[in-house]
């Protein structure tokens, strides 16, 4: 599960007015961000070691129960830590490009924002994503759309390149490799595999032994699609609010209902995402400016919809709806 890429604070009129305290605050934040970067690079590299070892031995990256928490194996094989770098560097490149897309959009519109906070986690990816915090108000709808859109657009561009590299490094096989967790492909993967098959005359549309870079790209695209859900303070919520605050309010509740249904029948993670949207901090702050968006800005919003279509899937993980998850936990 990922975290929302941007959180806009409910700021008071005097927030950030103590200029003398800012250098100390910035230094403390830089230390925290640096430590989180090192920690996340470590956790993603450690899980990536196992994935690369599996790939080199003809196994799918996530092939058995031993791949869920591979840390005992990792400790016994620390001399091969570099094996995990293709996975970790690919995933962090996507996440950091996404967050810096938000950050530089903030800078372009004179909005103070923190540098990215990467979040390590004991998960299959080694991370829970990344987040930046806005430290001053967004005053115009155009600025809000730019801030919400440039993150997923930037991250998508890197993920697209990395996915192409991951497919090229993956190996077509005669039969589907054994997988502990079945991963459903977004539309982008299907299109890229068909393109590679046409260009190289290789069977890339059949069973494929995924390279860890392809797995990292899949995770990066999943995080992109999660953040483009049009509700709350997700990237998609910022974009929708900039187009129509009224539509944002109405659609947020519709999205919540859809996520609940998807969580019950397709993937239980949607229930966690719906719960996140119900938190008070996910309510979208008001933007006072009512100036209509220009055609280029509306086109940018439409491009984000296209990215969402290319990257989203109702069931990212096979056999992981609510009832199947409860059954698995009881075993």
List its traits.
331 residues
The main sheet comes to:
3 strands, mixed
Shape: globular
Please state the structural category: mainly alpha
Distance between the termini: 23 Å
Low-pLDDT stretches are 10-20
Q: Determine the mean pLDDT.
A: 89
The order of strands across the largest sheet is 1-3-2
Radius of gyration: 20 Å
Helix/strand order, N-terminal first: EHHHEEHEHEHHHHHH
| Fraction of helical residues | 55-70%
Tally of alpha and pi helices: 11
* β-strand amount: 5-15%
How many strand units? 5
Describe the fold and architecture.
This protein has 331 residues and is mostly helical. The chain has a domain at 27-228 and 296-308. Helices cover 57% and strands 6% of the residues. It is built from eleven helices and five strands, in the order βαααββαβαβαααααα. The protein has helices spanning 22-56, 71-76, 85-108, 141-169, 187-200, 212-227, 235-243, 245-265, 269-277, 295-311, 322-330, and strands at 6-8, 117-120, 127-134, 171-172, 208-209. The strands form two sheets. A three-stranded mixed beta sheet has the order 1-3-2. β2 and β3 (127-134) form a beta hairpin.
